[in-house]
Design a protein that fits this description.
The complex is a heterotrimer of chains A (about 325), B (about 280) and C (about 130). With about 325 residues, chain A is mostly helical. Chain A is about 70% helix and about 0% strand. Chain B folds into 2 domains: about 200 residues, Rossmann fold, CATH 3.40.50.300; about 60 residues, no CATH class. About 0% of the residues of chain B have low confidence.
Chain lengths: ~325, ~280, ~130
């Protein structure tokens, strides 16, 4: 078995743009759930809005790069308002239901054949990132060192992706230490107490929903820059991966989403490499190579369950800070 | 009996010389049960008014209605002339009518100081965009921190100011909630059973704090069961039973009212309860 | 069963205030277990019927999951009759909507109804307004 390949692939995941996208989406989810206590089970929808918003703006409406980014963010704000207006005055479970439902609605809309001329239907969209790569300042060639050696294009995506993650993390850090963050943390614990002190709880919850959703949308854009947009990627599976990443790192911590994403992807890659190697070498006889993919996801599911039961505060979280009531 | 608080005789629903809160026809029904049925109620400005009554009389429900935490079936009331029926609870608090809760709501995952800072109003840093620019709110934060430190010193919680509120005892959390309610310099403070679960030594200092509020011109309305406290500090007593106001007046008068004694105070209200219990048991035998 | 038996009463007690229910002697953990088992059994039966009627596949549960949410919310959380009524309404709506919108969007239509119900009447058709918080 080629150990250097297995470890090399796993290590490369540490800086991959997909890891960055997941980290950013998890930061958004941390704003929702970790800091404000909102149950958002539709983060995949915000990412889909970023992905489709960007690709459709470029391909169908012919917008330039920044215009497409702005259009996606605008769509994200509208979407958050649509989700929040009916549900934020009700019990927290209702937001959960509505977010799952709207994520599915979005998925249906982008996969339907009737709108395929705009959304690409089941086939998806590609070739929308030209302007992005045209902005690449790095000349042709290979950069960095094993196992992180990348081409100029790859480097550009990683630099941009991780810079945005760093910026978002700093923004959330600053926000949560401000009076705004104080109100939101109070809301997480007891809304009535905060209302009795004169704060408009509904408005704060909405602001949190919009902000976290915007981060999810940016994550969706980073996610698709190195690849094509495929509707199948934005199902509830994606939402639960983001939840796993967030809980793994620690729901209301600063480094949690980033480290959680890195650990998640490294483990995913490691298990893939290990299982492949072991099956090929005949050490594991009850699996075929085709089955490895689904088996890994079974393992992720089990891992998430174990996480919630045995260490719900994640890697960096503080057990005393946990709050799971709605 | 003449007094300088009410216009004319003291009676349920009487008008006050200088009311800060006037409520009309306030009712609240839960299915078949009428929890509150108040024809008319006026709370005098700058005085300490006690709201007493047996459990289930509707006192906390009335509190919830007046402060916007519950929707009335019927009713209208105004505070300082502003119509408040249907106004959401946070707006009521901003208008200067602040309440505490029967089961304390100290935010245990915030420190004592953070709880206090949360009580202040109009902090620009509480706006999303302003929060990101520290210079816009840091001087206001320093101001409210000083005010919080003063209040905490008064309530003897200053040593605990950096502890999480979860680390405080029940009585200390009550004090914190009261101190926090004062951060916004409210005009009317509504205390829901401030003495519940507080040991006798602390009760004395709490009474002094409430008297201080009156000295500063704040109006106080509180719900209590401790008759000694009510007699000691209140200027006016409103008695509720089964959702209605059954008596109103200065404490000395109200507590001698036969209807009130029968319904609520008990025939032995003036004796030390220790002797009464033994007497009652002996009589039953 | 939910309304008249002791088990039904105990279930409603646990739903409302678990600590108080435990204080009156109700075994909260056992009630929760029973509810999960009964609900699971009923769902299993419905899965059998669905498989016979349409097709059995590994993700069939997921595809109707959101319609279930819509049905229960429309009918009213907390009432079993509400769930039945909601299910019939959603089922009819979904199939009739294909007259107007493309058939691969019919589920999306049901979900939009869900959101509208929450806007207009969050307690659903048969639910009680006090339960929605």
């Amino acid at each position: 078995m080629d150990w250097s390949l297995v470890i090399g692939n796993a290590a490369a995941e540490l800086i991959s743009p997909t890891t960055a996208a997941y980290a950013l989406a998890a930061v958004g989810l941390a704003v929702h759930f970790g800091y404000t206590g909102l149950l958002n089970f539709g983060q995949a929808a915000f990412m889909a809005i970023g992905a489709y918003g960007f690709a459709v703006s470029v391909l169908y409406f012919g917008l330039p790069f920044w215009g497409a980014v702005l259009a996606s963010l605008l769509a994200s704000v509208v979407f958050a308002l649509i989700l929040g207006i009916p549900t934020l005055r009700l019990r927290s479970d209702y937001l959960a239901i509505v977010t799952i439902a709207s994520a599915e609605i979005l998925r249906y809309i982008v996969s339907t054949t009737s709108l395929a001329s705009v959304t690409g239907g089941a086939g998806g969209l590609s070739a929308f990132a030209g302007e992005f790569y045209a902005m690449n300042p790095f000349a042709e060639g290979t950069y960095l060192f094993w196992p992180f050696d990348v081409t100029a294009k790859d480097l550009w995506v990683r630099v941009v992706g991780w810079s945005i993650v760093a910026l978002a993390t700093l923004l959330v850090f600053a926000l949560m230490r401000s009076p705004w963050g104080r109100v939101v943390k109070g809301i997480r614990e007891d809304e009535d107490a905060v209302r009795s002190l004169g704060k408009n709880v509904y408005s704060y919850k909405m602001q949190s929903l919009v902000f976290g959703g915007a981060l999810g949308t940016l994550a969706g854009i980073i996610f698709i820059l190195p690849r094509s947009v495929q509707p199948g990627n934005y199902g509830t599976g994606l939402t639960f991966f983001i939840w796993t990443v967030m809980l793994l790192g620690g729901a209301a911590t600063i480094l949690g989403p980033v480290v959680g994403s890195m650990v998640f992807w490294v483990l995913l890659s490691l298990t893939d490499g290990l299982l492949q190697g072991l099956v090929n070498q005949g050490v594991i006889t009850f699996l075929t190579t085709d089955q490895i993919g689904p088996v890994r996801f079974i393992l992720i599911g089990l891992g998430l369950m174990a996480l919630v039961v045995f260490r719900p505060q994640g890697i960096f979280g503080n057990k005393k800070e946990l709050q799971f009531n709605g | 009996m003449a007094n300088d608080i009410s216009v004319g005789k003291a009676a349920p629903g009487c008008k006050k010389v200088d009311p800060i809160l006037v409520a009309d026809n306030v009712t609240r029904q839960f299915g078949g049960l009428t929890a509150v049925n108040v024809d008319h109620l006026e709370i005098p400005r700058g005085m300490i008014t006690a709201l007493i009554g047996p459990n289930g009389a509707g006192k906390t429900t009335l509190f919830n209605l007046l402060t916007g935490f519950d929707k009335p079936t019927t009713g209208s009331w105004n505070f300082e002339g502003k119509d408040l029926a249907g106004v959401p609870s946070y707006k009521v608090a901003r208008l200067g009518m602040v309440r505490t809760f029967q089961l304390t709501k100290a935010l245990s995952m915030l420190t004592v100081m953070e709880n206090m800072r949360l009580g202040a109003q109009n902090q620009p840093g509480e706006g999303f965009f302003a929060a990101l620019i520290r210079p816009l709110w840091s001087s206001f934060e320093a101001k409210i921190t000083t005010r919080a430190e003063d209040l905490l010193k008064r309530f003897k919680l200053d040593a605990k100011q950096d502890d999480f509120a979860a680390a405080l005892s029940g009585g200390q959390r009550k004090l914190l909630e009261m101190a926090r309610a004062l951060m916004s310099e409210p005009k009317l403070v509504m205390l829901d059973e401030p003495m519940a679960g507080v040991n006798p030594a602390l009760t004395q200092s709490l009474l002094e704090h409430i008297k201080d509020l009156k000295k500063n011109g704040t109006t106080v309305l509180f719900v209590e069961h401790d008759m000694h406290m009510v007699r000691h500090i209140s200027d006016w007593v409103v008695v509720m039973a089964e959702g209605k106001i059954v008596a109103e007046g200065p404490p000395a008068i109200v507590m001698k009212d036969q209807a009130v004694i029968d319904a609520y105070l008990g025939a032995h209200a003036d004796t030390d309860l220790g002797t009464v219990a033994i007497k009652v048991v002996k009589e039953k035998k | 069963m939910h309304c008249s038996t002791r088990l039904g009463k105990a279930t409603r007690a646990v739903a409302d205030n678990p600590s108080l229910a435990a204080a009156t002697g109700i075994d909260v953990e056992s009630i929760i277990r029973i509810v999960w088992v009964v609900a699971g059994a009923l769902t299993g039966i419905s899965g059998v019927m669905l498989g016979l009627f349409v097709q059995a596949s590994w993700d069939m549960g997921f595809s109707i999951l959101l319609l279930l949410f819509a049905a229960v919310t429309l009918g009213g959380l907390g009432t079993a009759f509400g769930a039945a009524v909601g299910a019939m309404v959603v089922g009819l709506f979904v199939e009739l909507s294909t007259l107007v919108i493309p058939s691969d969007l019919k589920f999306a239509g049901a979900l939009i109804v869900l959101i509208l119900v929450l806007l207009v009447r969050p307690q659903g058709i048969l639910g009680k307004a006090q339960r929605i918080g």
